[in-house]
């Protein structure tokens, strides 16, 4: 008998790590930060110890299956595929939510918020 493991890299710009980990857990999968510093770099020319350094600012994660025995290859592929689809959908939803909030804040600034004096920020006090 053999084991079958899949690892998929996914960039999640807007979804929180804890929420992403929960989604992976729901599918019986694990998630960790990608170990590459920059996905565009050619890793073949790097020394091994440099490649193993994690970039804490990276939004690239690796999703992989924990269980390898007792499941068919098809089951594992379907679980990983379903999980990655849900992660990407939730990431897009988070992006739209943040853009709506930013737009609402922009409109509020244009209307002129009142400062501590009760006056609009753009009005100067007359003496």
Secondary structure: helix percent: 40-55%
Q: What is the overall pLDDT average?
A: 78
Number of strands: 3
Question: What is the N-to-C succession of helices and strands?
Answer: EHEHEH
Low-confidence stretches: 45-54, 121-127
Over the alpha carbons, how many angstroms does the gyration radius reach? Answer: 22 Å
The fraction of residues in strands falls at 5-15%
What structural class should be given to the helix and strand makeup?
alpha+beta
What does this structure look like?
The chain is an alpha+beta fold. The protein has one domain. 42% of the residues lie in helices and 13% in strands. It contains three helices and three strands. The protein has helices spanning 17-26, 48-51, 73-111, and strands at 7-11, 29-33, 60-65. The chain has a three-stranded antiparallel sheet with strand order 1-3-2, with helices on one face. It is elongated, with a radius of gyration of 22 Å.
